[in-house]
Amino acid sequence: MLYNVDDGHRDVIFDHFQSVKLDVIEEGTHFMISWLHRPIIFDIRTRPRSVPSITELKDIKARREQSTSGER
User: Fold this and answer.
1) Per DSSP, what are the bridge partners of residue 9?
2) Which residues contact 42 (CB under 8 A, 6 or more apart)?
3) pLDDT tens, position by position, for the chain (72 residues)?
4) What is the dihedral of CA 14, 11, 27, 31, to 10 degrees?
5) What pTM was computed for the model?
């Protein structure tokens, strides 16, 4: 049986006799034995994330005050 691993994804193979194999499968089309192996596909793409900060404005004010007063 053939299966595809898309761009930005990786794959490990679960073998019913040997458990999870240590090889990481890259993108592309691969062959597996359907009754013996099961592919486990992971999305490894990074995504931008915004983390809100409560003290963000206070920090900016403090930096501006330090830079205008000449202190470091």
Assistant:
1) 43
2) 9, 10, 11, 12
3) 899 999 999 999 999 999 999 999 999 999 999 899 999 999 999 888 887 766 655 566 666 666 666 555
4) 10
5) 0.58
